[in-house]
Design brief:
Elements lengths: L1 H62 L8
Length: about 70
């Protein structure tokens, strides 16, 4: 019966590992969705920054001086 016990123990371990892999896949899917949202937000911020830079450049060209950004 020892062999049968070992087989059952191995089957339980495989099922446990499968369950853990499924949970990890769900976590990866959730993180992937969050990453997509963050990427969209970052693209939006980048577009806004380009607009601000353009406005600064246009304002500087009107005055005849290059734009200055002080930090």
């Amino acid at each position: 019966m020892s062999a049968v016990g070992d087989i059952l123990k191995s089957v339980r371990e495989v099922l446990l590992l499968q369950s853990q892999v499924e949970r990890l896949e769900e976590q990866i899917d959730e993180q992937n969705d969050e990453l997509k949202l963050m990427s969209r937000d970052l693209i939006g911020v980048d577009k806004r920054l380009v607009r601000i830079e353009t406005m600064i450049e246009m304002a500087g060209s009107r005055v005849g001086q290059p734009p200055r950004i002080e930090g």
